[in-house]
Design brief:
Length: 419
């Protein structure tokens, strides 16, 4: 299939989807930098903030992701991505206009619904137009782009906070995404698009068969445990990191955006790129290597997660944050590649949606929400420092995820169709 698309068009498509991936996390992450301002202006509790950053987003992300991914497995993926970008960009702008908790919930739901489709459709498209030997690298580049978006959202939001209030920042960051969506529609490759029509792949796998395949594969069941446990910690750190440094260490928004954004970029971007290179070099034909590589990285990240949460020095906490994010990030590219190797091509967008569902519900949904309520429970004893014991407690999930990664590699059975 890669021969249908020229190398130049492949790289242009990758470049545009990198921009889309960055934008999705900028729009998502900037909320966390301003959530204490939003809390004060709208009269919210930490629990309600957890629902806004977590469950309200994750639940509707999940609801929207499967029908969109189902279409992406058989239809025009560049149209899917373009529409999703336009929808979530408009919803980001609407966040800046919310006047109460429920209006903000509705805007966050729109953001979730738009972002739900772009990732699965983009992954399906890229794994089709790039050759097998570059697949994990491409996946890891996209994950690194997500990391750039996470850190860039903090840094850009922190810079803008010096000149604008939170409402204006949402408008400034949301509206340009509409133009990016149109650029995706105009310039991305889509091998299925013939003259005047979309070519539907001949192999159509029913939804029940997709779910049966995932549930019946021991390796994918271990992956499900891994992708439940690790995002609990990872997203709790990401979604509450800005509030953590502002409350516990007394940093301002601009300072938090600069230091925390830089720490995220250093850990996540480098980790994703190294994971892609190592997995393509050593794990392409050896799924056990991918599992051990991911698992050992997660286990090694645990003490640094605790150090981040409990350190009294903000710069020691930042150093631990860089290490924990780097070590955690080593798992995702190899594990996603391991998953794709065990399902047919026509099922991969659904697999991507399933991965996104598990990560979204467990990380943004459960992790972000639980961190908020656990912090609220510790507030009576710890006051403004209640996020410290809350985040330290959630770090225990990294150990479970590391064991699950090792078991996923040991039980993996790749298909032969890519050879």
């Amino acid at each position: 299939m890669t021969g249908i698309v020229s190398p130049a068009r492949r790289n242009l498509t990758l470049g545009l989807l990198i921009v889309v991936a960055i934008l999705s996390y900028v729009d998502r992450q900037v909320f966390t930098l301003f959530q204490d301002d939003i809390k004060a202006e709208l009269g919210l509790s930490d629990g309600q903030l957890g629902l806004l950053t977590g469950m309200s987003f994750a639940l509707f992300y999940t609801i929207a992701s499967f029908p969109i991914a189902r279409y992406a497995d058989r239809g025009d993926r560049r149209l899917t991505i373009a529409v999703c970008v336009i929808v979530w960009s408009a919803a980001t702008a609407l966040c800046g206009m919310a006047q109460n908790f429920w209006q903000m919930v509705l805007a966050r739901i729109g953001l979730a619904a738009g972002e739900a489709g772009a990732g699965p459709a983009g992954n399906s498209l890229l794994t089709e137009i790039f050759p097998l030997e570059r697949r994990t690298t491409v996946i890891s580049v996209m994950l690194a782009a997500n990391a750039v978006g996470i850190s860039g959202g903090l840094a850009l939001g922190g810079w803008l906070s010096q000149y604008f209030g939170w409402r204006a920042v949402f408008l400034i960051l949301g509206l340009p995404g509409i133009l990016i969506g149109l650029a995706v529609w105009a310039f991305c490759a889509e091998p299925r698009r013939g003259v005047g029509a979309v070519t539907i792949p001949p192999q159509q796998i029913p939804m029940r068969e997709v779910l049966r395949t995932m549930a019946g594969n021991p390796s994918l069941r271990w992956v499900a445990l891994l992708l439940t446990m690790v995002p609990l910690t990872g997203f709790a750190f990401i979604l509450w990191g800005a509030s953590f440094f502002q409350r516990v260490h007394g940093m301002g928004k601009a300072e938090t955006g600069f230091w925390l954004g830089g720490a995220m970029a250093a850990g996540l971007v480098i980790g994703n790129l190294i994971a892609g290179w190592v997995s393509d070099r050593y794990g392409k034909a050896n799924p056990r290597f991918n599992g051990w590589f991911a698992g050992l990285g997660l286990i090694a990240s645990f003490p640094f997660g605790v150090g981040f949460a409990l350190s009294a020095n903000p710069y020691v906490a930042l150093a631990c944050f860089v290490v924990v994010k780097f070590m955690m990030t080593l798992h995702l590219g190899p594990i996603i590649s391991l998953c794709y190797a065990q399902v047919p091509v026509a099922m991969r967008a659904m697999m991507s949606a399933t991965i996104g569902m598990v990560i979204g519900l467990s990380g943004m949904g459960i992790g972000g929400t639980v961190a908020g309520y656990v912090s609220q429970a510790f507030a009576a004893d710890y006051g403004d420092r209640s996020l410290q014991p809350a985040l330290a407690l959630i770090s225990l999930c990294l150990l479970v995820g590391g064991f699950a990664a090792i078991m996923a590699g040991r039980t993996a059975k790749p298909l032969a169709e890519d050879a």
